[in-house]
Request: fold
Amino acid sequence: MADELDPDLDRSMSRRWGTTADDVRVKAQIDTTPRHSPGPGDAMKQVGLESTLGVGIIGVSPVRGWAATAHIPALRALPNYEIRALSAHSAESARAAGDVFGVSAVFSDHEQMVTQPDIDVVAVTVKVPHHRELVCAALAAGKAVYCEWPLGRDLDDARAMAALGAEKGVRTVVGLQARQAPAIEFVQELLSDGYVGEVLSTTMVGLSVPGDVVVQPNAYMLDKTNGANVLSIAVGHSLDILNYVLGEFADLSAVSDLRRPLITIEETGEQIVKTAADQIAVIGTLTSGATASIHIREAVAGGTGFLWEINGTGGTLRITADAAQPQIFPLTVAGARGRSEPAELAAPAALTQKWPALTRLQGAPAYNVGRAYAAFAADIDDGTHTVPDFVDAVGRHEVIAAIETSAASGERVKA
Reply:
Protein backbone atom coordinates (compact mmCIF):
# COMPACT_ATOMS: atom_id res chain seq x y z
CA MET A 1 0.00 0.00 0.00
CA ALA A 2 1.05 3.59 -0.52
CA ASP A 3 0.97 6.16 2.26
CA GLU A 4 -2.72 6.95 1.85
CA LEU A 5 -5.32 4.40 2.96
CA ASP A 6 -7.89 4.26 0.19
CA PRO A 7 -11.15 5.69 1.61
CA ASP A 8 -13.09 3.01 -0.23
CA LEU A 9 -11.10 0.44 1.73
CA ASP A 10 -11.72 2.48 4.88
CA ARG A 11 -15.46 2.27 4.26
CA SER A 12 -15.13 -1.45 3.58
CA MET A 13 -13.28 -1.81 6.89
CA SER A 14 -16.23 -0.21 8.63
CA ARG A 15 -18.66 -2.66 7.03
CA ARG A 16 -16.45 -5.70 7.61
CA TRP A 17 -15.05 -5.06 11.08
CA GLY A 18 -17.36 -2.40 12.56
CA THR A 19 -14.35 -0.11 12.69
CA THR A 20 -12.64 2.50 10.59
CA ALA A 21 -9.05 3.51 10.06
CA ASP A 22 -9.56 6.27 12.63
CA ASP A 23 -10.58 3.66 15.22
CA VAL A 24 -7.43 1.68 14.47
CA ARG A 25 -5.33 4.81 14.86
CA VAL A 26 -6.85 5.47 18.27
CA LYS A 27 -5.82 1.97 19.36
CA ALA A 28 -2.33 2.67 18.03
CA GLN A 29 -2.01 5.55 20.49
CA ILE A 30 -2.71 3.54 23.64
CA ASP A 31 0.93 2.90 24.50
CA THR A 32 2.90 6.05 23.67
CA THR A 33 5.62 5.72 26.31
CA PRO A 34 9.04 4.83 24.86
CA ARG A 35 10.35 1.51 26.19
CA HIS A 36 13.75 3.04 26.83
CA SER A 37 15.66 6.19 26.00
CA PRO A 38 18.49 5.24 23.67
CA GLY A 39 21.68 7.21 23.97
CA PRO A 40 24.49 7.95 21.53
CA GLY A 41 26.06 4.83 20.10
CA ASP A 42 23.04 2.71 21.01
CA ALA A 43 22.53 1.50 17.43
CA MET A 44 22.51 -2.29 17.23
CA LYS A 45 24.59 -3.85 14.48
CA GLN A 46 23.83 -7.39 15.55
CA VAL A 47 20.21 -7.76 16.60
CA GLY A 48 17.97 -10.67 17.51
CA LEU A 49 14.74 -11.55 19.19
CA GLU A 50 16.14 -10.61 22.60
CA SER A 51 17.15 -7.16 21.33
CA THR A 52 15.02 -4.16 20.45
CA LEU A 53 14.96 -3.01 16.84
CA GLY A 54 14.73 0.76 16.55
CA VAL A 55 12.41 1.85 13.73
CA GLY A 56 12.15 5.14 11.91
CA ILE A 57 9.05 5.61 9.75
CA ILE A 58 9.03 7.87 6.70
CA GLY A 59 5.60 9.08 5.62
CA VAL A 60 3.59 9.48 8.81
CA SER A 61 0.49 11.65 8.82
CA PRO A 62 -1.19 12.64 12.10
CA VAL A 63 -4.65 12.27 10.53
CA ARG A 64 -4.63 9.40 8.03
CA GLY A 65 -2.48 7.01 6.02
CA TRP A 66 -1.11 3.50 5.96
CA ALA A 67 1.63 4.14 8.50
CA ALA A 68 -0.95 5.16 11.12
CA THR A 69 -3.38 2.42 10.17
CA ALA A 70 -1.01 -0.54 9.89
CA HIS A 71 2.66 0.04 10.70
CA ILE A 72 2.32 1.86 14.00
CA PRO A 73 -0.25 -0.51 15.57
CA ALA A 74 1.79 -3.50 14.37
CA LEU A 75 5.07 -2.20 15.77
CA ARG A 76 3.47 -1.13 19.05
CA ALA A 77 2.14 -4.66 19.55
CA LEU A 78 5.57 -6.32 19.18
CA PRO A 79 7.91 -6.27 22.18
CA ASN A 80 11.11 -6.40 20.12
CA TYR A 81 10.44 -3.21 18.15
CA GLU A 82 10.45 0.42 19.22
CA ILE A 83 9.36 3.37 17.09
CA ARG A 84 12.17 5.85 17.66
CA ALA A 85 11.63 8.43 14.93
CA LEU A 86 9.03 9.71 12.50
CA SER A 87 9.46 11.70 9.31
CA ALA A 88 6.79 13.71 7.50
CA HIS A 89 6.66 16.08 4.54
CA SER A 90 6.78 19.22 6.70
CA ALA A 91 8.04 20.23 10.12
CA GLU A 92 4.49 21.03 11.24
CA SER A 93 3.15 17.65 10.14
CA ALA A 94 6.12 15.87 11.74
CA ARG A 95 5.53 17.62 15.08
CA ALA A 96 1.82 16.82 14.95
CA ALA A 97 2.52 13.15 14.18
CA GLY A 98 5.02 13.00 17.04
CA ASP A 99 2.44 14.43 19.44
CA VAL A 100 -0.25 11.99 18.28
CA PHE A 101 1.92 8.90 18.45
CA GLY A 102 4.15 9.81 21.39
CA VAL A 103 7.44 9.90 19.49
CA SER A 104 9.81 12.73 20.38
CA ALA A 105 12.31 12.40 17.53
CA VAL A 106 10.58 13.86 14.47
CA PHE A 107 12.03 15.07 11.18
CA SER A 108 10.96 16.85 8.02
CA ASP A 109 14.29 15.91 6.39
CA HIS A 110 14.47 12.16 5.79
CA GLU A 111 18.24 12.34 5.34
CA GLN A 112 18.60 13.41 8.97
CA MET A 113 16.37 10.62 10.20
CA VAL A 114 18.02 7.75 8.34
CA THR A 115 21.44 8.66 9.73
CA GLN A 116 20.34 8.52 13.38
CA PRO A 117 22.50 5.92 15.17
CA ASP A 118 19.59 4.40 17.13
CA ILE A 119 17.60 3.56 13.97
CA ASP A 120 18.04 -0.03 12.79
CA VAL A 121 15.10 -0.30 10.38
CA VAL A 122 13.63 2.40 8.15
CA ALA A 123 10.01 1.91 7.06
CA VAL A 124 9.08 3.72 3.84
CA THR A 125 5.32 4.31 3.66
CA VAL A 126 5.05 7.20 1.19
CA LYS A 127 3.51 7.37 -2.27
CA VAL A 128 5.16 5.10 -4.82
CA PRO A 129 6.86 7.77 -6.97
CA HIS A 130 9.00 8.73 -3.95
CA HIS A 131 10.04 5.20 -2.95
CA ARG A 132 13.32 5.07 -4.84
CA GLU A 133 14.75 8.31 -3.45
CA LEU A 134 13.86 7.51 0.16
CA VAL A 135 14.77 3.82 0.05
CA CYS A 136 18.14 4.58 -1.53
CA ALA A 137 18.89 7.18 1.15
CA ALA A 138 18.18 4.64 3.89
CA LEU A 139 20.19 1.91 2.18
CA ALA A 140 23.11 4.28 1.65
CA ALA A 141 23.04 4.94 5.41
CA GLY A 142 23.41 1.19 6.00
CA LYS A 143 19.91 0.69 7.42
CA ALA A 144 17.62 -2.26 6.94
CA VAL A 145 14.57 -1.13 4.97
CA TYR A 146 10.90 -2.14 4.95
CA CYS A 147 9.35 -0.57 1.86
CA GLU A 148 5.70 -0.73 0.97
CA TRP A 149 4.58 -2.42 -2.25
CA PRO A 150 4.93 -1.63 -5.11
CA LEU A 151 8.65 -1.32 -4.51
CA GLY A 152 8.98 1.16 -7.37
CA ARG A 153 7.10 2.78 -10.20
CA ASP A 154 8.42 0.16 -12.58
CA LEU A 155 10.88 -2.71 -12.98
CA ASP A 156 13.87 -0.40 -13.42
CA ASP A 157 13.14 1.31 -10.09
CA ALA A 158 12.83 -2.06 -8.34
CA ARG A 159 16.05 -3.42 -9.82
CA ALA A 160 17.99 -0.31 -8.80
CA MET A 161 16.83 -0.56 -5.18
CA ALA A 162 17.49 -4.29 -5.00
CA ALA A 163 20.98 -3.81 -6.44
CA LEU A 164 21.83 -1.11 -3.89
CA GLY A 165 20.52 -3.27 -1.05
CA ALA A 166 22.74 -6.14 -2.19
CA GLU A 167 25.72 -3.82 -2.55
CA LYS A 168 25.27 -2.48 0.97
CA GLY A 169 24.69 -5.96 2.39
CA VAL A 170 21.64 -4.95 4.41
CA ARG A 171 18.38 -6.78 4.93
CA THR A 172 15.28 -5.60 3.11
CA VAL A 173 11.54 -6.26 3.30
CA VAL A 174 8.86 -5.43 0.77
CA GLY A 175 5.24 -5.04 1.85
CA LEU A 176 3.81 -8.18 0.27
CA GLN A 177 2.52 -9.19 3.68
CA ALA A 178 -0.32 -11.39 2.44
CA ARG A 179 2.29 -14.18 2.40
CA GLN A 180 2.31 -13.98 6.19
CA ALA A 181 -1.47 -14.36 6.52
CA PRO A 182 -2.38 -17.51 8.50
CA ALA A 183 -4.79 -18.54 5.73
CA ILE A 184 -2.01 -18.53 3.14
CA GLU A 185 0.28 -20.56 5.40
CA PHE A 186 -2.65 -22.95 5.97
CA VAL A 187 -3.23 -23.35 2.22
CA GLN A 188 0.45 -24.18 1.80
CA GLU A 189 0.17 -26.86 4.48
CA LEU A 190 -2.96 -28.35 2.91
CA LEU A 191 -1.33 -28.54 -0.50
CA SER A 192 1.83 -30.04 0.97
CA ASP A 193 -0.33 -32.68 2.69
CA GLY A 194 -1.94 -33.59 -0.64
CA TYR A 195 -5.39 -32.19 0.13
CA VAL A 196 -6.20 -31.51 -3.55
CA GLY A 197 -3.86 -34.08 -5.07
CA GLU A 198 -1.96 -32.80 -8.08
CA VAL A 199 -2.81 -29.16 -8.81
CA LEU A 200 -4.30 -29.01 -12.31
CA SER A 201 -5.51 -25.42 -12.48
CA THR A 202 -6.21 -22.28 -10.51
CA THR A 203 -8.61 -19.38 -11.02
CA MET A 204 -8.66 -16.00 -9.31
CA VAL A 205 -11.22 -13.23 -9.69
CA GLY A 206 -11.36 -10.03 -7.70
CA LEU A 207 -12.69 -6.51 -7.35
CA SER A 208 -10.41 -3.65 -6.41
CA VAL A 209 -12.06 -0.26 -5.85
CA PRO A 210 -15.75 -0.14 -6.90
CA GLY A 211 -17.48 2.84 -8.42
CA ASP A 212 -16.28 5.94 -10.27
CA VAL A 213 -15.36 8.29 -7.42
CA VAL A 214 -12.04 8.77 -5.61
CA VAL A 215 -10.86 11.24 -2.99
CA GLN A 216 -8.26 13.84 -3.88
CA PRO A 217 -5.29 12.19 -2.09
CA ASN A 218 -5.77 9.07 -4.24
CA ALA A 219 -6.08 10.90 -7.56
CA TYR A 220 -2.41 10.21 -8.27
CA MET A 221 -3.30 6.50 -8.58
CA LEU A 222 -5.27 7.25 -11.75
CA ASP A 223 -2.07 8.16 -13.62
CA LYS A 224 -0.40 5.02 -14.94
CA THR A 225 3.09 6.55 -14.78
CA ASN A 226 2.92 6.83 -10.99
CA GLY A 227 3.02 3.04 -10.66
CA ALA A 228 0.22 2.76 -8.08
CA ASN A 229 -2.83 1.31 -9.79
CA VAL A 230 -4.97 -1.80 -10.10
CA LEU A 231 -2.21 -3.72 -11.93
CA SER A 232 0.55 -3.00 -9.46
CA ILE A 233 -1.51 -3.06 -6.25
CA ALA A 234 -4.63 -5.26 -6.48
CA VAL A 235 -3.20 -7.56 -9.17
CA GLY A 236 0.28 -7.36 -7.66
CA HIS A 237 -0.76 -8.50 -4.17
CA SER A 238 -3.16 -11.15 -5.51
CA LEU A 239 -0.68 -12.45 -8.05
CA ASP A 240 2.00 -12.64 -5.38
CA ILE A 241 0.13 -15.12 -3.20
CA LEU A 242 -0.80 -17.22 -6.23
CA ASN A 243 2.83 -17.45 -7.36
CA TYR A 244 4.13 -17.81 -3.80
CA VAL A 245 1.86 -20.79 -3.15
CA LEU A 246 1.72 -22.46 -6.57
CA GLY A 247 4.88 -21.35 -8.35
CA GLU A 248 5.78 -18.85 -11.02
CA PHE A 249 4.41 -18.44 -14.53
CA ALA A 250 6.32 -20.11 -17.34
CA ASP A 251 4.43 -18.01 -19.90
CA LEU A 252 1.29 -15.91 -20.03
CA SER A 253 -1.12 -13.92 -22.15
CA ALA A 254 -2.79 -10.77 -20.87
CA VAL A 255 -5.53 -8.32 -21.72
CA SER A 256 -5.51 -4.85 -20.19
CA ASP A 257 -8.24 -2.29 -20.81
CA LEU A 258 -9.43 1.07 -19.57
CA ARG A 259 -13.21 0.86 -19.55
CA ARG A 260 -13.97 3.87 -17.36
CA PRO A 261 -11.63 6.72 -18.37
CA LEU A 262 -13.39 9.52 -16.47
CA ILE A 263 -13.31 9.47 -12.67
CA THR A 264 -14.90 12.00 -10.31
CA ILE A 265 -13.00 13.62 -7.46
CA GLU A 266 -15.22 13.32 -4.39
CA GLU A 267 -14.35 16.63 -2.77
CA THR A 268 -14.81 18.83 -5.85
CA GLY A 269 -16.98 16.91 -8.28
CA GLU A 270 -14.33 17.46 -10.94
CA GLN A 271 -13.98 14.74 -13.55
CA ILE A 272 -10.42 13.83 -14.47
CA VAL A 273 -8.99 11.52 -17.10
CA LYS A 274 -7.70 8.18 -15.89
CA THR A 275 -4.80 6.55 -17.76
CA ALA A 276 -4.34 3.41 -15.63
CA ALA A 277 -6.22 0.30 -16.82
CA ASP A 278 -9.21 -0.88 -14.79
CA GLN A 279 -9.57 -4.36 -16.31
CA ILE A 280 -6.67 -6.85 -16.11
CA ALA A 281 -7.04 -10.45 -17.28
CA VAL A 282 -4.21 -12.96 -17.37
CA ILE A 283 -4.08 -16.60 -18.42
CA GLY A 284 -0.96 -18.69 -18.48
CA THR A 285 0.88 -21.84 -17.56
CA LEU A 286 2.75 -22.21 -14.27
CA THR A 287 6.13 -23.92 -14.15
CA SER A 288 4.34 -26.92 -12.62
CA GLY A 289 2.21 -27.23 -15.76
CA ALA A 290 -0.97 -26.02 -14.05
CA THR A 291 -3.22 -23.60 -15.93
CA ALA A 292 -3.77 -20.27 -14.15
CA SER A 293 -6.22 -17.46 -14.84
CA ILE A 294 -6.68 -14.11 -13.09
CA HIS A 295 -9.21 -11.33 -13.67
CA ILE A 296 -9.09 -8.27 -11.44
CA ARG A 297 -11.40 -5.35 -12.16
CA GLU A 298 -11.89 -1.85 -10.87
CA ALA A 299 -14.50 0.92 -11.20
CA VAL A 300 -17.38 -1.53 -11.68
CA ALA A 301 -20.55 -1.20 -9.60
CA GLY A 302 -19.98 -4.40 -7.62
CA GLY A 303 -19.39 -8.12 -7.88
CA THR A 304 -17.32 -10.86 -6.28
CA GLY A 305 -14.82 -9.28 -3.92
CA PHE A 306 -12.15 -11.98 -4.06
CA LEU A 307 -12.33 -15.64 -5.00
CA TRP A 308 -9.35 -17.92 -5.53
CA GLU A 309 -9.88 -21.55 -6.43
CA ILE A 310 -7.21 -24.24 -6.59
CA ASN A 311 -8.39 -27.36 -8.39
CA GLY A 312 -6.62 -30.70 -8.25
CA THR A 313 -7.01 -34.36 -9.06
CA GLY A 314 -8.46 -35.10 -5.63
CA GLY A 315 -10.01 -31.94 -4.28
CA THR A 316 -10.57 -28.20 -4.34
CA LEU A 317 -9.54 -25.27 -2.16
CA ARG A 318 -11.44 -21.98 -2.23
CA ILE A 319 -10.06 -18.81 -0.65
CA THR A 320 -12.35 -15.79 -0.35
CA ALA A 321 -12.27 -12.22 0.95
CA ASP A 322 -14.20 -8.98 0.68
CA ALA A 323 -11.87 -7.43 -1.91
CA ALA A 324 -8.87 -8.18 -4.10
CA GLN A 325 -6.58 -6.90 -1.36
CA PRO A 326 -5.51 -10.14 0.37
CA GLN A 327 -2.84 -8.26 2.27
CA ILE A 328 -5.57 -6.32 4.12
CA PHE A 329 -8.82 -8.25 4.21
CA PRO A 330 -9.21 -11.47 6.25
CA LEU A 331 -9.14 -14.60 4.10
CA THR A 332 -11.50 -17.56 4.54
CA VAL A 333 -10.40 -21.02 3.41
CA ALA A 334 -12.89 -23.69 2.30
CA GLY A 335 -12.15 -27.10 0.88
CA ALA A 336 -13.68 -30.23 -0.56
CA ARG A 337 -12.41 -33.67 -1.37
CA GLY A 338 -13.76 -35.32 -4.47
CA ARG A 339 -16.99 -33.78 -5.81
CA SER A 340 -18.49 -32.55 -2.54
CA GLU A 341 -19.21 -28.88 -1.93
CA PRO A 342 -16.42 -26.91 -0.23
CA ALA A 343 -16.87 -26.37 3.51
CA GLU A 344 -14.98 -23.85 5.63
CA LEU A 345 -11.69 -25.07 7.07
CA ALA A 346 -10.29 -23.43 10.19
CA ALA A 347 -6.59 -22.62 10.25
CA PRO A 348 -4.88 -24.39 13.16
CA ALA A 349 -3.97 -22.42 16.27
CA ALA A 350 -0.29 -23.10 15.61
CA LEU A 351 -0.59 -20.72 12.66
CA THR A 352 -3.04 -18.14 14.00
CA GLN A 353 -1.22 -17.90 17.35
CA LYS A 354 2.32 -18.01 15.97
CA TRP A 355 2.84 -14.45 17.25
CA PRO A 356 0.63 -14.11 20.38
CA ALA A 357 1.45 -10.42 20.79
CA LEU A 358 -0.54 -9.73 17.61
CA THR A 359 -3.75 -11.49 18.69
CA ARG A 360 -5.62 -8.27 19.43
CA LEU A 361 -4.95 -7.08 15.86
CA GLN A 362 -6.58 -10.09 14.18
CA GLY A 363 -8.96 -8.98 11.44
CA ALA A 364 -7.43 -5.50 11.21
CA PRO A 365 -5.13 -4.17 8.44
CA ALA A 366 -2.20 -4.10 10.88
CA TYR A 367 -2.34 -7.85 11.49
CA ASN A 368 -0.44 -9.15 8.47
CA VAL A 369 1.95 -6.20 8.62
CA GLY A 370 2.68 -7.18 12.22
CA ARG A 371 3.26 -10.80 11.21
CA ALA A 372 5.70 -9.61 8.56
CA TYR A 373 7.60 -7.52 11.12
CA ALA A 374 7.62 -10.43 13.59
CA ALA A 375 8.91 -12.82 10.93
CA PHE A 376 11.55 -10.27 9.90
CA ALA A 377 12.89 -10.09 13.46
CA ALA A 378 12.97 -13.90 13.56
CA ASP A 379 14.81 -13.95 10.22
CA ILE A 380 17.46 -11.64 11.64
CA ASP A 381 17.79 -13.80 14.74
CA ASP A 382 17.86 -17.13 12.91
CA GLY A 383 19.64 -16.14 9.71
CA THR A 384 16.60 -17.20 7.67
CA HIS A 385 14.63 -15.64 4.80
CA THR A 386 10.88 -16.02 5.28
CA VAL A 387 9.66 -12.51 4.50
CA PRO A 388 9.72 -11.21 0.93
CA ASP A 389 12.68 -8.92 0.24
CA PHE A 390 13.67 -6.62 -2.60
CA VAL A 391 14.84 -9.56 -4.73
CA ASP A 392 11.37 -11.09 -4.39
CA ALA A 393 9.90 -7.70 -5.29
CA VAL A 394 11.93 -7.60 -8.49
CA GLY A 395 10.54 -11.01 -9.41
CA ARG A 396 6.99 -9.75 -8.96
CA HIS A 397 7.72 -6.58 -10.91
CA GLU A 398 9.07 -8.78 -13.71
CA VAL A 399 5.75 -10.62 -13.96
CA ILE A 400 3.88 -7.31 -14.00
CA ALA A 401 6.18 -6.13 -16.80
CA ALA A 402 5.43 -9.35 -18.71
CA ILE A 403 1.68 -8.69 -18.29
CA GLU A 404 2.15 -5.18 -19.69
CA THR A 405 4.20 -6.48 -22.62
CA SER A 406 1.65 -9.16 -23.50
CA ALA A 407 -1.29 -6.78 -23.18
CA ALA A 408 0.41 -4.24 -25.44
CA SER A 409 1.56 -6.73 -28.07
CA GLY A 410 -1.33 -9.18 -27.98
CA GLU A 411 1.19 -12.01 -27.84
CA ARG A 412 1.97 -14.75 -25.35
CA VAL A 413 5.22 -14.01 -23.52
CA LYS A 414 7.69 -15.77 -21.27
CA ALA A 415 7.25 -14.65 -17.69
